[in-house]
Design brief:
The protein has three domains: 114 residues, Butyryl-Coa Dehydrogenase, subunit A, domain 1; 111 residues, Beta Barrel (Butyryl-CoA Dehydrogenase, subunit A, domain 2), CATH 2.40.110.10; 147 residues, Butyryl-CoA Dehydrogenase, subunit A, domain 3. 54% of the residues lie in helices and 15% in strands. Strands 1-4-5-8 form a four-stranded mixed β-sheet. The protein has a four-stranded antiparallel β-sheet with strand order 2-3-7-6, with no helix packed on it. The chain is globular and about 80 Å long. The two termini are 37 Å apart. Bound molecules: flavin-adenine dinucleotide. Flavin-adenine dinucleotide binds next to strand 1, strand 3 and helix 10.
Length: 379
């Protein structure tokens, strides 16, 4: 059984790698330069069942294993970080349904996400509630069979393209985090205005949006879990999704390392390939070691998620911290290995360096990951 699962996982990884190198890598520079949302990649993911990797077969998916998903995210991120985020965020939007949804909600919505017919988004952050989401102010007031949402969410990945948005809002301001609930909101709901945010440093093709709710009605049947379960769901989701951001970071780093090794063997100075200089070899050796260390911790966090091991909170924070810091360091060093060529967009490493930065910021900045780790140490 274990062998069978491993073989399936390796087969999925191999086919994603082939697709990413053949069809996504050639698009990556253009996606970055135009900053247009890559609908062609979404369509490719739909046709090739890539979104299905994030979901279990019982809900129309192919896997549902965090480790298999991370391997797929890494392979895509080696070629294009924006495209890798499409897959990771489909998982991010699905986790709240898996964790808090009724069986009926799971059967209604998860197959739509697994096929990619619907794109998902996860709306937790607000203009005044980023690292401290418990201080959110978006309100959901009960009105007969509906809830009425008012407030602003920001930085929401897929925000203006998603069909289904998981929105966290305060239902009882007197209850603190126990007064927050989660809702499944249709992207085209009346009372929801979506404004795409422009001018990002990296992951430029990814859709990032502000969501403005003004008297937006959501049926009570679209609440996930009980009233007040929202914050618990939101945090449970982050434990499961942070390893996927670690996988994205890992892929960016691994892609940059490949570029650096290749370039160092071709580029000649002082009458020989620069790869023969120990100064370059040591840099490449350090980069490869950081990539492998990030991969070990990312896979360990995924195994904890798959085993529902309570250590997942700690390992997910450690994996995201380690992999994103490695991505920033390795991509910066890759630019250095390429010299002047590393600094222009004819080569992909400058894009990879810009893309790497976001992995230290979203799903909790690395300062917040350190807080999570320290809290566990003191417990
Ligand atoms: C491109 C992009 C996509 C995103 N996608 C999503 C999404 O899909 N859904 C979603 O809900 N959110 C999303 N986010 C939001 C992201 O999670 C937040 O930006 C992040 O959590 C930080 O919040 P903030 O930007 O408000 O920064 P702030 O919280 O204002 O932090 C500013 C600085 O202060 C530091 N800081 C804050 N508190 C502490 C502390 N206690 N100790 C030490 N340092 C601290 C932070 O680490 C940071 O360096 C996205 C953001 C971006 C940029």
């Amino acid at each position: 059984m274990a062998t069978e699962v491993r073989e399936d996982r390796q087969a999925i990884q191999a086919s994603v790698r082939e697709l990413a190198q053949a069809r996504i890598a050639p698009r990556a520079a253009e996606i970055d330069q135009t900053a247009e949302f890559p609908w062609d990649v979404v369509e490719m993911f739909r046709q090739q069942d890539i979104f299905a990797i994030a979901f279990a077969p019982e809900y129309g998916g192919l896997s549902g294993s965090a480790l298999t998903l991370a391997m797929a995210v890494e392979e895509i991120a080696k070629a294009c970080a924006t495209s890798a985020l499409l897959l990771a965020v489909q998982g991010l939007g699905g986790y709240p349904i898996l964790l808090g949804g009724s069986e009926e909600q799971k059967r209604e919505f998860l197959p739509e996400l697994a096929s990619g017919r619907k794109l998902a988004a996860y709306a937790l952050s607000e203009p005044d509630a980023g690292s401290d989401p418990a201080s959110m102010s978006t309100r959901a007031r009960r009105d007969a069979d509906d809830y009425v949402l008012d407030g602003v969410k920001t930085w929401i990945t897929n925000g203006s393209v998603a069909d289904l948005i998981v929105v966290f809002a305060v239902t009882d301001p007197d209850q603190g985090t126990k007064g927050i609930s989660a809702f499944l909101v249709d992207g085209d709901s009346e009372g929801l205005q979506r404004n795409r945010i422009h001018g990002k440093l990296g992951i430029r093709g990814s859709d990032t949006a502000e969501l403005v709710f003004t008297g937006c009605r959501v049926p009570a049947s679209r609440r996930l879990g009980a009233d007040g379960d929202g914050f618990k769901i939101a945090m449970g989701v982050l434990d499961r999704s942070r390893p996927q951001i670690a996988a994205q970071a890992l892929g960016i780093a691994a892609g940059a390392l490949d570029q650096a090794v290749q370039y160092a063997q071709q580029r000649r100075q002082f009458g020989r390939p620069i790869a023969e200089f120990q100064g370059i070899q040591f840099m490449l050796a350090d980069m490869a070691t950081q990539v492998e260390a990030a991969r070990c911790l990312t896979h360990e966090a995924c195994r904890a998620v798959d085993a529902r091991d309570p250590q997942m909170t700690l390992l997910a924070a450690m994996a995201k911290l380690t992999a994103s810091d490695a991505a920033m360091k390795v991509t910066t060093d890759a630019v250095q290995v390429l010299g002047g060529s590393g600094y222009i967009n004819e080569f992909p490493v400058e894009r990879m360096m810009r893309d790497a930065k976001i992995t230290q910021i979203y799903e909790g900045t690395n300062q917040i990951q350190r807080l999570v780790i320290a809290k566990r140490l003191m417990a």
